[in-house]
Design goal:
single chain; 115 residues
Length: 115
Amino acid sequence: MSQQQQQEPQDVIKNSFISLSRVIETETDCTTASIDVLERLNWNATKKYARLADACQGLETDRAYLTDLNKEIEKYANQVEDITTHIDNLEALTTELDEWSKELEVKSRRFKQTK
């Protein structure tokens, strides 16, 4: 065998290792890029959830305020209901008094006529 023929297998092996090295390097670069993309996605998701947590905190504050406001409104609604009941009773009493006064007028006229 000549030196050139012996050189060829060494060159082939060398080229194979160089090619394999490039393949591994390319795969590593792809994996690193994928990890970078995932890191950015995770970072964005973290920021999104932090904003949602802040919004939820604001909603909790609003809920507490609205609950207190609702209790106060219920108190006033109960007072209005009580007042409405009293007004209904007064209207019934007024109607009854009106009927009595009409009866008294009639009796008064009759009494005057008999005199």
